[in-house]
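Supplementary notes for students who missed Thursday's class. We covered one full example, reproduced here. Read the sequence, then the structure, then the short commentary at the end.
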Amino acid sequence: MLPGPAHAGNYYVDASGGDDNATGTSPALAWKSLVKANAVALQPGDSLLFKSGGMWQGQLHPKGSGLPGKPITIAAYGGIQKAIVNGNGLIGEGTLFLEGQSYWDIGGLELTNDAKDQADRRGVNVIGPANQVRLHDLYVHHVAGIRSDPTLSNGDPVNIRAKSTGGIGIYGGGEDITVEDCEVFHVDNCGIFTEEKGGAYVRLRLRNNVLHDIAKNAIIIRGTDEKSVIEHNVCYQTCVRGVTTGNTIFSAHCQGTVFQYNEGYLNLSSGPFDGSLYDVDINGNTNTKWQYSYSHDNNYGLIWFASTATDTGIKVRYNVSQNDRGRIFCLSYDLGHADIYNNTIYIGKDVNPVILYEGSRKYDYGFYNNIIYNLSQGAAYKFSGGKRKVDYNVFYGNHPSTEPADAHKLTGDPLFVSPGAGKIGLASISGYRLMANSPCINSGMNLKDDGGLDINADKLLGVADRGAMEWQGVVALAEKPALRGSDRNPAHANNRGKWTRLFLTEAAAEADALGRR
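Structure (token representation):
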């Protein structure tokens, strides 16, 4: 380890006015280069501060580790703009790189790693095992990773390697790793992902991030535990730049991890598979929860099960799906057991999905208290030889000949306040509240371990209602503070600059061309 400063303190880096021969201990005595910043072994409690609006070329690989209660901090100083680090096509690692380091708090940076070719690139790369690493308020964009070849199978090494390139990659396991309030934009292949190589993750937290213009998957979570939570993230405009499939958020080898309050829309997969908000993928997803989320305008539905017979105890509950196409609930592989309940599904006139799809595998699942509001004459159901129990659901509107039997089903109007009126943001879906005379109130099936809350974080009261919103005794409660990640995310609010404006213009044009607006 290289020698560090004699005393813990603040160290400044100024790309335009700094001097690597200075002490670095004040803005007037700032260092200049990444070479200098990378060469010093920082001590617990130190801060490495980059001048706001400054730009550096190359890799930021700071040295050292903090201690509990004394993390090493990286931030910007002297203004509201982020400090910019451009990896210039760096291959094999990330523009920001930590390896075997713990107790870091890193924010206030804008990170890119662009190139004309596809290669093994990341914007941020943390290799563990790592403890108490917090990444926040980062703007990661234009990372030229590997876009998987759609002609190759998912098991092909090129595709597997592609899924380890993109915006923020975390490897090797660890405890108390947090990624929050970041914006990840225009990256190939994935937005934020974890890899299991070297260890699993305890208390991983991904929250309040905004991810858009992502070539394939926005978020991939591997190897997490029941204390890990993926919540309040907004993901849109995925499966772009020639990539034809990819679920927005998927898990692998997760035990009890909670996915909640996420929003996903405009997954543009051309299929015929993998274009949903959620994907329960690969064995080891026992007891995972997929709840309180808003899926809309995706090409392949709310959730896919690419699971195995060992996956049990899965709960899919209190979600809203509006105008998702393809397969809303798709069971494409074996499944030990899942309970799918109290979801609200709105299907507009020309959407034509398969509402509940079974492939030719073995299934065991329950489907309860869901509201299917179907205005599409082309909608259908597809069942195979699976084991299922369908009960206490609402099937309103068009009734396909394949609609399942349900001993306690309702077919009348559920009487939503304003069905189909959802826009962008969880705060926009209050139209799916029940009116006072709704037949869905107190007519559902009570379930054990139902979570105790609905999608609005309102308490469940007495006999179960049907759908994602529990009747609270008034026609329409005043809207709660927005739960949408971008509304709570300073990074997203502060970075509506030239890249975001350009993207939104392109996204609108593409959506218009697809007839999705």
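Commentary. The first strand starts at residue 10 and ends at 13. Residues 1-6, 476-517 have pLDDT under 50 and may be disordered. If anything here is unclear, bring it to office hours.
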